[in-house]
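Continuing from the previous page of notes. For each protein in this section, the sequence appears first, followed by its structure tokens. Read the first protein now.
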Amino acid sequence: MTQKNVNHMLTLEEFIIRSQNRFDGATGELSQLLRDIGLAAKIVSREVNKAGITNLLGQYGSQNVHGESVKKLDVFADDQIKSALARSGIVSMMISEESNELIRLESSSGNYIVFFDPLDGSSNIDVNVSVGTIFSIYRRKSSRDVPAEESDALQPGDKQSAAGYVLYGSSTMLVYTTGMGVSSFTLDPSIGEFMLSDDDIRIPDFTPQYSINEGYSSGWPGGVRDYIAYIKQVDPETERPYSLRYIGSMVSDLHRILLLGGIFLYPPNVSNPHGKLRLMYECNPMGYIIEQAGGLAFDGSGRILEINPQSIHQTAPVYMGSRSNVEKLMEFLSRSK
């Protein structure tokens, strides 16, 4: 049996235990936290796969902090992740897309702060299209002898201890990084375990594909409009025109790009002049993964991961994916300034 085949028999827990000396100072806390997130993901996956027969489709009847309608599965996923993180004693603070405020765990002096989007792309739930969970983990800046504060949470993305996502699609996949490459795991429902799929994902340097909601094109910056016009032109030497692939779930769109290459764009528009996607629990974790796989993550003027956040629900424009694709876009944005 080859080494690659041996690796493919590793469970998520076994892989984390083998890796923890490299990323966790051998304390085991970050390892435990990743395992807790994996457990919550299994529970959410089970309910996503049977939502239509357990009455978890449809609206919950409220809106989140961003004014978006909350789905029943949003609430279920949010509850499961909060529960998994709270009982570990490792987390001092949680920030969820579904909550207006910081969630302080007063009984915990944990070292870690976790941002998460419990169910990204939830508008797709009722039509049975892939959705996902995104998480971002930071080590708190203050001493664990005092309660964690908002300043502990407001750190740039390049300070993340780990980041990842779970994709609930034709199979359930968990993808994460601790700053030493990107690994993916596929849930085997017959044994209830995430099994290693790839321990070193590398995004292709260039693929003639793009992902964007073109319905907002009238409000895009000029450089983005020029770039989209350019990639639609016919030029076989530069593999143009590019193919458009857009699902409407950041996890789904970027998972495709991570594996196959291309560029994901969510520029500012008239309705969202500062961007729509959330910096701390969408742009930063996904940008960290893309960079660790060899790609680029950009906000129009610099690296996503270097933005100093001012609020927990801050938004940002985002352009990320294959290195050559993003560099070409950057040329158009720089010309339009």
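Done with the first. The second protein uses the same format. Note its length before scrolling.
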Amino acid sequence: MNSILERKEVREKLEDIKEADVLVGIPSYNNARTIGHVVRAVQAGFAKYFPDRKCVLINSDGGSTDGTMDAVQNAAIDFQSILLHHRVRPAFKITTPYHGIPGKGSAFRTIFEIADALNVKACAVVDSDLRSITPEWIELLIKPVVEGNLDYVAPLYHRHKYDGTITNSIVYPLTRALYGKRIRQPIGGDFGFSGKLAKFYLTKDVWETDVARYGIDIWMTTTAIANNFKVCQSFLGAKIHDPKDPGADLSAMLYQVVGATFDLMETYSDVWKNIKGSEPVLTCGFQYAVGLEPVNVNLDRMIEKFRLGVKELMDIWKEFLPEGIIDFFNKAEGLPKEEFHIPDEIWVEIIYSFALAAHNKLINKEHLLKSLTPLYIGRTASFVLETWESDAEEVEEKIENLCIAFEKKKSLLIDKWQEV
């Protein structure tokens, strides 16, 4: 596969810069409306928190046709109006299309390659559609690497209780139970990492796989933890981007994220089989309450989707789900809305059974994971009903209880995994 470093204009720019201390990458695809704000926040972060460091901003673009790359080049801040007292070294800006199969992972690979070529000490990547990014994010993602000698900084946000339901109900509890680290947002999209870890990522042969398309966030987090890099999380405040209705059709995202998580279970089975329980990770940054945008939910539609799934997909589920779960579905299908409930223990067993079915290759992987959608929507409906009156703290407590249930039942997963 071609390297971005083979492009003449990129090579010339890198020869001009030679080496750098700090690099921030912004992957993009048709984000002209929002990316200017993100670029200005990054530039202000460089000026305010790293005035004496050589800083580089990379925009790795997937072939935008809406003027995204122009928006990056034209975005600028008036440094004088922000900070009169800092000596500011000029920051460099590189905008380049990336090579490889379309997807965020290919964009990240370009960022890793440039970081490697410039021998950068600390890097970060941030989403191009963020409305809530501030210059402080750059400090919070980079400083733990520069000053704390850490290798990987995951984001920690406050999110609306019905935003990020795939993370809350599957990815966080499963990743935590498997690898033993309480990284609350393993697929957050905004990360800090050391130059050493960027080099390590480049040695992995994943750039022609689904990781390059869409599995990059969970891959970066899991790879860092499973290979004993030093990890932490930084509190960034609110994550405000275009919110998604948790009852809408998230089957593509669910398939992508859960599929990548299951693939990583194969790669690192020798690691996670030996881990019991979990431990907190260092959390950087000052935590404070934030205002959050509401997320609308349509409970009736969600429960209807679950019931339709029970009618249409039972034959698939019977091939790998325990009999007790099938009986539970048959009973739940007829319950009135106010009594609808999928308990933690049942949900954990469902997710572990899907992981085992993927491991045993019982069914075509895409069919298997798409059949999870109505169950995920049913579980989300159950969670909404349970937490309608709950505040953020109470919701977090319920997610903590779910995580503990995943940890307690992990031995069943290990026993059945080893039977194969």
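What the second structure shows: The longest helix spans residues 299-317. The two ends are 35 Å apart (CA to CA). We return to this in next week's lecture.
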